Amino acid sequence: MENKKSNTKDRELFISRTFNAPVELVWEMFTDPEHIANWWGPDGFTNTIAEMNVIPGGKWDFIMHGPDGTNYDNKSIFREIIKNKRLVFDHVSEPKIVFTIDFIAQGEKTLLNWHMLFESAEQLMEVARKNGAVEGLKQNIDKLELYLANMHTRSN
Amino acid sequence: MKTRRDVYQAIADPTRRAIINMVASESHNVNAIAEKFDMSRQAISLHIQVLIDCGLLDVKQQGRERLCKAHLEQLGEVFLWVEQYRQHFEKKLDALEIYMEKIKKQRDGKQKK
Q1: How many other CB atoms are found less than 10 A from the CB of residue A17?
Q2: How confident is the model at residue A124 (pLDDT cuts 50, 70, 90)?
Q3: How many helices (H) and strands (E) does chain B have?
Q4: A119 → chain B, closest CA residue
Q5: B100 CB-near residues (< 8 Å, 6+ apart)
Q6: From CA A146, how far away is CA A108, in angstroms rounded?
Q7: Rg of the Cα trace of chain B?
Q8: Helix, strand or coil for residue A91?
Q9: In this structure, what DSSP letter does residue A112 have?
Q10: CB contact under 8 A, B78 and A148
Q11: Could you tell me where the beta strands, DSSP code E, fall in chain B?
Q12: Residue B63: left (phi > 0), alpha (psi -120 to 50), or beta?
């Protein structure tokens, strides 16, 4: 359905996913620095969470260390926190993006609605171009999946 | 340094997107395009020039008219890139899914012991 009211259509992205996990667990994956460091960053990167204060106005400072030694600083500010329901944060490093993540409990499952609003269409294009150019990105994440699967096999 | 012109730059501007929409279905005279917008002809000419530089338009002289014709093949590239970026976040959710399964199993294991 067209959203006629907003003029943001050319600078937003929306994805959604149903997880086979209760909403409390999904929420924990997003809001506990111990957990988010394990899945948020790209593979081949190590991640340092310098600060993560999940309160309105609280800072989230997530540093990704690239395989070539480059550090990518990702600073965000939490805007809205409704436990097990909604998480809103502004990514204040470039590219500037407002993330709105809605958690919808569905019994033992959780529907996640993930919305990203870019500051401008130009920024979205720029980021899309960079990511598109990094063809290896997808392969990296495939590697992560493999890595996690292996870890799981070993721990059994 | 010369600014690199590409298709992303072309469509980053709302006026240029509007021009593309106008000429997408049929060619328009340059004057007809300029009349549709509440800005100077020079400004519109500049936007048209950017679109030409990016390879999305060409202008042909036909008698007394200067006709703008769209070449939109390149726009497919943009949709592809944005789609890939969306895929990047889908993959993030894949990673979350796998990681969460692992955590679930670990916790179930502990409870059973």
Answers
A1: 17
A2: confident
A3: 5, 3
A4: B12
A5: A19, A21, A25, A26, A29
A6: 26
A7: 24
A8: strand
A9: E
A10: no
A11: 28-29, 57-62, 65-70
A12: left
**Inter-chain CB proximity B103 and A120 less than 8 Å:** no
Tell me: cis bond preceding A95? Omega within 30 of 0 counts. yes
C-alpha pair distances (Å), A15 with each of A31, B17, B43: 19, 25, 37
Rounded Cα distance between B65 and B31, Å, is: 8
Question: How far apart (Å, rounded) are the C-alpha atoms in residues A38 and A130?
Answer: 24
pLDDT score for B102: 93
**Cα B19 from Cα B51, distance rounded (Å):** 9
Distance CA B44, CA B66 (A): 14
Amino acid at A36: I
Contacts of A114 in chain B (CB under 8 A): 89, 93
Give the model's pLDDT for residue B24: 81
Model confidence, pTM:
0.66
Take residue B13 and report the two structure tokens written for it: 């501007």
How far apart are alpha carbons B35 and B32 in whole angstroms? Answer: 5
| CA distance, residue B66 to nearest chain A CA (Å) | 29
State whether the Cα torsion B91-B97-B102-B107 is positive or negative.
positive
Are A148 and B98 within 8 A, CB to CB?
yes
Q: Write a three-state SS string for A48-89.
A: EEEEECCCCCCEEEEEEECCCCCEEEEEEEEEEEECCCEEEE
ipTM for the predicted complex? 0.70
Contact B97 A15 (CB under 8 A): no
List strand residue ranges (DSSP E) for A107-143, in order. 109-118
Residue of chain A whose alpha carbon sits nearest to that of B92: A40
